[in-house]
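Its record is retained below.
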Amino acid sequence: MRYVGLFLAVGSLLGWCSFASALIIPAQQVDAGYDLFQTDPGTSFQGAPFGGVPVGTYNFGGAIGVQGVGQTDTIVQRLADATPASPTVPLQMDLLQLVSDTPISLGGGPLGIYYVDLQSTDGTGPASTGSITINWNTNTSGTFTSSLDVFFDVHYGALNGPIVAQSNALLSNSGAAWSDTAPPGAVLINGVDNLLNGNDVTNDFWPGQFTEMEAGVVHTVEPATMPEPASLSLLAMAGLLGVRRPRRI
């Protein structure tokens, strides 16, 4: 009977530990990492519609190195962990590649196709920085506001074409939703936007579609997806035609 009682006690203890483990609640924290975006319809520059130019691959440096990033044309980096006690963290835009949908005239240049990228990509201007404030509605979801001072070049004819204008725009988002769950088809790179804590997704950050804007500039984005197989050849062709792969900032 003594051994039976011991087994029952151990079994009860193990059962209680399993129950307690099930009650563990993820910490309210978003880890530092990257947001890989693709530009959506509705994006415009000085009233003209613009779309994204997918970069194809990107060098994140360190052990992660060069990775395929699918339809990504915009990369924003969160430079610190966010918590309810410290919800505002610095941002840096590392990549921006846009192209006019139709021939237009910008910066006094001739009628044609124009491209926009970051001044820091060419080394001709400062980094594009800002901040994000993350709020929690649950332990793994909520809303966020953000602001980025984007310093950009306007090129004529190609991403590496002549620069016809340089300026900056303070793009802000007044409130959008996020969760720790990636949308279907999203580009997943461990340590970049996925499994940021090294174990699970509870400290990941995935916004839905949102718009950041300033007067004359509207940029609508959503998490970047991997292209369909037929589109992969188009990305490869873009590389052969000399579309520049921006360096990591």
Q: What stands out?
A: Residues 52 and 134 are 26 Å apart (CA to CA). The helical segments are 2-22, 119-122, 229-240. The first helix runs from residue 2 to 22.
